[in-house]
């Protein structure tokens, strides 16, 4: 019984990547809804982390996020990602209006193993979920101070990987994004014991 | 609760009372037992005696026994009594034992009862506490219940109010609904009416269209006719033009012929002249010969003249040269004299400067000059050397000055040190003095003690104890005063030291400097700290923005992202819209062209017979609005005019009416006796007023003559007339 309990509480690198990818999925959907990038009638509500989160019904967005997040999970389980940026741009002028950065930081875990695949974390899953819930709440609270997006906007997910990463098919290298007159707000961070995720929102100051 | 407690207290009191009363009861019981035990009628006195002491009773019995011996009758009685006594004694013992047992029992019961009482008391306390708590809870519950009841009442009231409100709203809504239905019906009716009207309109428009089409057809026919006519007309015009051209050709021909005729007459004259000239040819030949000769002569003369001119020119050049040479010679002579003078001066200079016995020559002068130059060089070098020396000296002086300054500073420092040392010395001296005083004092004390000792040794016998004590007191007092003095001096010293410290501290310049430096350093520190904080903030901001991104990263994204799609779609849409704009522009242009053509056609063909209905309506509306505006302005004007006239009438007393189409004015006074009393005045073209004859003016002939003819001005006449009429009117009223 005790051994079963022990294995149950262990989080491996893959599991950590899964947790983060799940967070990213809900976070990106929530941002899409909160920032009004797509019309509200295209969203369905689901329960996650003890919160009601609105998820897009658009099949294009779903497939896009599925593709991106599966690749992200693969890279995350190899600790190859520095940062994931969700960029909100003006659809006509291509001007970057907002950038949600999810900074990934590898942590040593419990056993401090040199081999990252052997690392494990015994952090309680409910605790992690509570931390994620706090971040999600903050994301939905950002609407109060972020500037209104009064144009047709679209979004993209950019992944900051290592230099030597081999790109799979349909993946391109792109340049770094720049926001003119940017203001940054750091939200709470959460950690799975193997990854620490910081969420930062950069937005263009309305003059 | 208090009742319960008081009742419990009463119970306990009763219980205690019962316990306290038990002793007298016991006594009673004893007494009873005793009385019960005394079957015979023993005296209370005897019994008391027995109670007091059994021994005594024995004695008494003995006494009685002794006494009984004296009584012969009582022997039997005494025996009997003795027997009784013994019996009673035995009984008494028994009773006493019983009593003891009872006593024990009592005590035990008492202890049991006490324990019971304490337990009961505890229980009662507990129950009372519980009771109190329960009562409190009950109070609270009652309070809560009452609040709930109130809430219920309020809720009921609210419910009723809400019911009323909603009923009201329902009724209102019903009313509204009914009204809206009514409105809708009205609107429907209106719409139906309008529709019918529109239909009628449409029919009328159709009819009109039909008529216009018919008209158009007719116009076309006429157009065709006109076309035919135009072609005939054009043919005619072409013929006409042809004829005109032929006419022009004929006229030109006539002109040519006339010209030829003229030229023929000219030619005739020319032939005449040429014949005449031909006749005069030999003369002309001779003349020609003569002229040729003359010409040759002239040529020769011209050649001579050219030669002469050349010569003249040459001479002139020579003359110029000569004159230049002469001027040069003069200048050279002037120069020569000048140089001779200079030379003389030089020679004089050389003589002045050369040695007296040597020959005056340029070489000598040169050598002299060289000598002088050498001397100069030597002087210059000496001068430089002296300058450098002076500079060195100055530097040395400066150094020395600096040193002097340093030394002065050192001297000041040393002086300060000296002062300090002096102060210190003073202090030391003072200290020394105090110490010496102390020493003196101690010496004195030692002497005193010595004296004391000697006194105690030597003069003990002579002095009485009292004297000794007094002496000692004196000595001690002196020592005490000495101590006091010492204390005072020490205090003073301490005070002086403190003063000095206070004085010396702020006066020191070093301290001030250090303080200033400290302040500046502090300010610097604050500034740097602030700067550091700013930098940290900026660093944080930058970190957040990831300006300092790690170099070993590349940014990748999924090619099939929504952003790209959106860009693509927006681009497509943009292009589509552009295309549509183009299309619409073209369409618009086409429509405009068509419209223009149509307009042209209609205007040219019908000559404005059919007009655009819309335009007509618009113009009609405009006309109506303009008419309304005009009417309004007219009304305004009339009102203003009336008011103005009234005001003028009231102020000046005359009503002026314009009569007829010419500039004739009728002037009526306010105080006129009848409406027929008026003047007629005409304005001539030269803006002159003329009084015309009226029946009323004839009655006023004398006044007219007097004022109007004399002054040639209307206002005084009218004002005098007004005054006159007014007076007359007031008189009649009076």
UniProtKB/TrEMBL annotation, chain A:
<keyword id="KW-0498">Mitosis</keyword>
<dbReference type="Pfam" id="PF02301">
    <property type="entry name" value="HORMA"/>
</dbReference>
<comment type="similarity">
    <text>Belongs to the MAD2 family.</text>
</comment>
<dbReference type="GO" id="GO:1990728">
    <property type="term" value="C:mitotic spindle assembly checkpoint MAD1-MAD2 complex"/>
</dbReference>
<protein>
    <recommendedName>
        <fullName>Mitotic spindle assembly checkpoint protein MAD2A</fullName>
    </recommendedName>
</protein>
<dbReference type="GO" id="GO:0051301">
    <property type="term" value="P:cell division"/>
</dbReference>
<keyword id="KW-0131">Cell cycle</keyword>
<feature type="domain" description="HORMA">
    <location>
        <begin position="14"/>
        <end position="201"/>
    </location>
</feature>
<dbReference type="GO" id="GO:0005654">
    <property type="term" value="C:nucleoplasm"/>
</dbReference>
<dbReference type="GO" id="GO:0007094">
    <property type="term" value="P:mitotic spindle assembly checkpoint signaling"/>
</dbReference>
<dbReference type="GO" id="GO:0000776">
    <property type="term" value="C:kinetochore"/>
</dbReference>
<keyword id="KW-0132">Cell division</keyword>
<dbReference type="InterPro" id="IPR036570">
    <property type="entry name" value="HORMA_dom_sf"/>
</dbReference>
<dbReference type="InterPro" id="IPR045091">
    <property type="entry name" value="Mad2-like"/>
</dbReference>
<dbReference type="InterPro" id="IPR003511">
    <property type="entry name" value="HORMA_dom"/>
</dbReference>
<keyword id="KW-0539">Nucleus</keyword>
From TrEMBL, chain B:
<keyword id="KW-0498">Mitosis</keyword>
<feature type="coiled-coil region">
    <location>
        <begin position="78"/>
        <end position="105"/>
    </location>
</feature>
<dbReference type="GO" id="GO:0072686">
    <property type="term" value="C:mitotic spindle"/>
</dbReference>
<keyword id="KW-0131">Cell cycle</keyword>
<dbReference type="InterPro" id="IPR008672">
    <property type="entry name" value="Mad1"/>
</dbReference>
<dbReference type="GO" id="GO:0051301">
    <property type="term" value="P:cell division"/>
</dbReference>
<feature type="region of interest" description="Disordered">
    <location>
        <begin position="42"/>
        <end position="74"/>
    </location>
</feature>
<keyword id="KW-0175">Coiled coil</keyword>
<dbReference type="GO" id="GO:0007094">
    <property type="term" value="P:mitotic spindle assembly checkpoint signaling"/>
</dbReference>
<keyword id="KW-0132">Cell division</keyword>
<dbReference type="GO" id="GO:0005635">
    <property type="term" value="C:nuclear envelope"/>
</dbReference>
<feature type="coiled-coil region">
    <location>
        <begin position="138"/>
        <end position="260"/>
    </location>
</feature>
<keyword id="KW-0539">Nucleus</keyword>
<dbReference type="Pfam" id="PF05557">
    <property type="entry name" value="MAD"/>
</dbReference>
<dbReference type="GO" id="GO:0000776">
    <property type="term" value="C:kinetochore"/>
</dbReference>
<dbReference type="GO" id="GO:0051315">
    <property type="term" value="P:attachment of mitotic spindle microtubules to kinetochore"/>
</dbReference>
<feature type="coiled-coil region">
    <location>
        <begin position="390"/>
        <end position="445"/>
    </location>
</feature>
<protein>
    <submittedName>
        <fullName>Mitotic spindle assembly checkpoint protein MAD1</fullName>
    </submittedName>
</protein>
<feature type="coiled-coil region">
    <location>
        <begin position="511"/>
        <end position="538"/>
    </location>
</feature>
<feature type="coiled-coil region">
    <location>
        <begin position="567"/>
        <end position="636"/>
    </location>
</feature>
<feature type="compositionally biased region" description="Low complexity">
    <location>
        <begin position="57"/>
        <end position="70"/>
    </location>
</feature>
<comment type="similarity">
    <text>Belongs to the MAD1 family.</text>
</comment>
């Amino acid at each position: 019984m005790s051994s079963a309990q022990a294995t149950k509480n262990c989080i491996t690198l893959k599991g950590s990547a899964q947790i983060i990818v799940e967070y990213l999925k809900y976070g990106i959907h929530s941002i899409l809804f909160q920032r009004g990038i797509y019309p509200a009638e295209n969203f369905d509500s689901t329960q996650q982390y003890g919160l009601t989160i609105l998820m897009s019904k658009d099949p294009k967005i779903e497939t896009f996020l599925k593709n991106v997040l599966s690749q992200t999970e693969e890279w995350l389980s190899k600790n190859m990602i520095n940062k994931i940026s969700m960029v909100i741009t003006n659809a006509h002028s291509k001007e970057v209006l907002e950038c949600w950065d999810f900074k990934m930081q590898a942590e040593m875990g419990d056993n401090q193993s040199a081999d990252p695949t052997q690392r494990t974390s015994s952090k309680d899953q409910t605790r992690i979920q509570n931390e994620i819930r706090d971040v999600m709440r903050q994301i939905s609270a950002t609407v109060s101070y972020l500037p209104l997006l009064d144009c047709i906007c679209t979004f993209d997910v950019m992944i900051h990987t290592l230099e030597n990463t081999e790109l799979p098919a349909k993946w391109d290298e792109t340049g770094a994004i720049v926001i003119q007159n940017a203001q940054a707000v750091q939200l709470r961070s959460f950690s799975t014991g193997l990854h620490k995720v910081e969420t930062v929102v950069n937005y263009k100051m309305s003059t | 609760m208090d009742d319960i407690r008081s009742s419990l207290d009463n119970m306990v009191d009763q219980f205690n009372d019962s316990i306290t009363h038990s002793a007298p009861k016991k006594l009673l019981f004893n007494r009873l037992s005793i009385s019960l035990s005394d079957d015979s009628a023993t005296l209370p006195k005897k019994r008391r005696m027995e109670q007091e002491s059994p021994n005594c009773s024995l004695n008494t019995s003995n006494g009685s026994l002794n006494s009984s011996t004296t009584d012969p009758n009582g022997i039997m009685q005494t025996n009997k009594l003795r027997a009784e006594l013994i019996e009673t004694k035995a009984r008494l013992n028994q009773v006493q034992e019983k009593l003891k047992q009872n006593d024990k029992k009592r005590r035990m019961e008492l202890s049991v009862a006490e324990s019971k009482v304490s337990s009961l008391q505890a229980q009662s306390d507990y129950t009372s506490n519980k009771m109190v708590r329960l009562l409190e809870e009950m109070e609270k519950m009652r309070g809560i219940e009452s609040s709930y009841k109130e809430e219920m009442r309020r809720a009921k009231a609210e419910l009723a109010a809400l019911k009323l409100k909603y009923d009201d709203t329902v009724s209102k809504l019903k009313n509204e609904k009914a009204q809206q239905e009514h409105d809708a019906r009205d609107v429907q009716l209106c719409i139906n009416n309008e529709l019918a009207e529109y239909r009628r309109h449409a029919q009328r428009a159709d009819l009109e269209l039909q008529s216009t089409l018919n008209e158009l057809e007719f116009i076309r026919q006429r157009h065709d006719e006109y076309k035919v006519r135009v072609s005939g007309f054009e043919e005619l015009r072409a013929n006409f033009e042809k004829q005109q051209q032929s006419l022009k050709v004929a006229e030109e021909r006539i002109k040519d012929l006339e010209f030829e005729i003229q030229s023929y007459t000219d030619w005739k004259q020319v032939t005449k002249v040429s014949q005449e000239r031909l006749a005069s040819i030999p003369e002309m030949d001779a003349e020609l010969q003569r002229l040729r000769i003359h010409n040759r002569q002239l040529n020769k003369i011209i050649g001579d003249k050219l030669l002469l001119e050349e010569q003249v020119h040459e001479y002139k050049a020579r003359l110029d040269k000569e004159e230049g040479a002469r001027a040069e010679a003069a200048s050279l002579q002037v120069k020569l004299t000048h140089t001779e003078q200079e030379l003389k001066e030089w020679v004089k200079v050389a003589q002045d400067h050369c040695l007296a016995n040597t020959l005056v020559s340029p070489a000598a002068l040169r050598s002299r000059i060289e000598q002088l130059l050498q001397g100069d060089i030597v002087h210059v070098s000496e001068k430089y050397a002296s300058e450098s020396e002076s500079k060195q000296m100055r530097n040395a002086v400066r150094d020395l000055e600096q040193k002097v300054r340093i030394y002065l500073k050192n001297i000041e420092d040393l002086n300060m040190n000296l002062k300090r040392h002096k102060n210190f010395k003073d202090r030391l001296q003072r200290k020394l003095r105090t110490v010496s005083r102390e020493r003196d004092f101690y010496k004195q004390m030692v002497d005193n003690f010595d004296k004391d000792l000697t006194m105690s040794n030597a003069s003990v016998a002579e002095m009485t104890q009292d004297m000794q004590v007094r002496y000692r007191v004196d000595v001690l007092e002196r020592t005490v005063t000495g101590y006091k003095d010492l204390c005072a001096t020490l205090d003073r010293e301490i005070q002086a030291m403190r003063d000095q410290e206070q004085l010396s501290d702020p006066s020191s310049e070093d301290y001030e400097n250090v303080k200033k430096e400290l302040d500046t350093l502090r300010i610097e520190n604050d500034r740097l700290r602030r700067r550091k904080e700013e930098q940290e903030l900026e660093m944080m901001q930058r970190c957040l923005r990831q300006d300092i991104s790690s170099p070993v990263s590349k940014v990748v994204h999924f090619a099939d992202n929504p952003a790209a799609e959106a860009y693509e779609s927006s681009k497509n849409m943009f292009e589509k819209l552009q295309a549509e704009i183009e299309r619409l522009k073209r369409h618009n242009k086409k429509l405009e062209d068509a419209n223009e053509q149509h307009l042209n056609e209609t205007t040219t063909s019908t000559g404005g017979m059919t007009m655009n209905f819309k335009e007509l309506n618009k113009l009609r509306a405009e006309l109506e609005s303009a008419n309304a505006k005009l009417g309004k302005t007219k009304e305004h004007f009339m009102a203003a005019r009336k008011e103005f006239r009234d005001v003028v009438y009231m102020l000046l007393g005359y009503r002026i009416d314009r009569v007829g189409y010419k500039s004739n004015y009728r002037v009526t006074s306010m105080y006129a006796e009848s409406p027929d009393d008026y003047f007629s005045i005409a304005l001539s073209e030269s803006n002159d007023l003329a009084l015309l004859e009226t029946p009323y003016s004839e009655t006023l002939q004398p006044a007219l003559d007097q004022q109007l003819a004399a002054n040639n001005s209307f206002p005084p006449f009218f004002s005098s007339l007004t005054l006159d009429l007014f007076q007359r009117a007031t008189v009649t009223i009076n």
